[in-house]
Design goal:
DNA-binding; Tetracycline Repressor, domain 2; 9 helices; mainly alpha; homodimer
Chain lengths: ~220, ~220
DNA sequence: TGTACATCAGTGAACGCGCGTTCACTGATGTAC
DNA sequence: TGTACATCAGTGAACGCGCGTTCACTGATGTAC
């Protein structure tokens, strides 16, 4: 009788529905404070239904974090891939990519919803070794990704200050994570994009020649 | 019989003891996951004793956050005040201050323990309006503090790129918050100081004249 | 095409445990006269 | 200096509620012969 789903909609994937509801709640009030009961009520299933899809609450956390990491990686692939198509120069591609990232995060209806990795970082002891290792790998993956891009830039442009490539690689995720915290606390809408644009200016100043001497 | 406190120590202030224990636990696993029971066991008092000092769990959160904000403000006053004593030029004072901040955070035994404001940001709906407003004021306070410092710098040095003073002011807390998240996830020791040093390089590049023309 | 069995995607009652909070009470210290 | 009372800093038993998890069961769909 419940026909909230139109005939054109794909069959509602209960597992995905549970994860969507859970992610929203976890980002709002934390993992421990999000009860299975409230999830199943919102998803219109029974308690038992939840445990059919996830063996326990930790399995839900794992799935949430895994999905988030995959989505973020796909987003970075997409944005910086597109940026590179637009400009073959690695520095300009990076600057375009950061601009695209800022614009994308600006266009989200209610700002960035938050990062489940940061949420998990502040609820560390709740999770098993596997979850912590997944998070670590994700952050190291982003470090390596951006580090490689900065290395490519450094082959073409002489940096004006000595480079700490790991720190520079970490800076993208770091600035975004920090800005998300500020945005959540302030309740403003453009904090994240403004911080990314600051990072963009830094990259520009760090590599671009003082007065267009080289180019 | 329990004489862990030497005769030279001031009488153990139970309220402070509760807060120290609670802060550590909250930063490790979140507010909801930290039970009053575990706090009172660690503090060697009874449940009732806890409620003598805090009317409920939210009052503990409020006290924790208030204390954290005060401590952070005192730290900033101290560090950037000292930096200004060392160099009257606002840009150099800022650069010295950031260096001192990075060094200080490097010297902490186990890295930065975490920020209770960020922890609260990811457990938002657990807290009342008062707590959220306190956090907002703290972040805006830091924005204003550093914004004023950057304004002073901009009076003396022409920035090489257009300034977004609010975003620049936010960047100090933002970079630190983000770096704390990375450091927690990575389990490394120098992530926070490395990120602050990146911010320092940005400030240097943004304001310092290209080739010492002005000075 | 019909029947038997297996799998999928759940239902809903029941469990026991741990949580935040209340409350009557207590013993030590401080203050007034 | 002695006595009466108030305040401080707790104790510890009891409360009821909500939580994560288990489990026997079920009805719809898929597959084998």
């Amino acid at each position: 009788m419940d026909s909230r789903y139109s005939s054109m909609t794909v069959k509602p994937d209960t597992r995905t529905l549970i994860m969507d509801i859970a992610e929203k709640a976890v980002l709002e009030k934390g993992f421990e404070a999000t009860s299975i009961d409230e999830i199943v009520v919102a998803a219109h299933i029974s308690r038992g239904g939840f445990f059919y899809h996830f063996k326990d609450k930790n399995a839900l956390a794992r799935a949430l974090i895994e999905r988030y990491i995959d989505a973020e990686n796909a987003l970075f692939d997409d944005i910086f891939g597109r940026a590179r198509e637009l400009n073959d120069d690695p520095l300009h591609a990076m600057l375009i990519g950061l601009k695209l990232l800022a614009e994308m995060l600006d266009d989200l209806p209610n700002g960035h919803p938050g990062c489940v990795i940061a949420a998990a970082a502040y609820q560390d002891r709740l999770f098993d070794r596997g979850v912590r290792e997944m998070n670590r790998r994700a952050i190291l993956g982003w470090r390596a990704r951006f580090r490689a891009m900065f290395e490519e830039i450094a082959k073409v442009y002489t940096p004006r200050e000595p480079l700490d490539l790991n720190a520079l690689g970490d800076m993208v995720s770091g600035v975004v994570e920090g800005a998300i915290v500020l945005q959540r606390v302030l309740g403003e809408r453009q904090t994240v994009s403004a911080q990314i644009m600051q990072l963009r200016t830094y990259v520009k100043l760090l590599f671009a020649p003082p007065m267009q001497m080289d180019h």
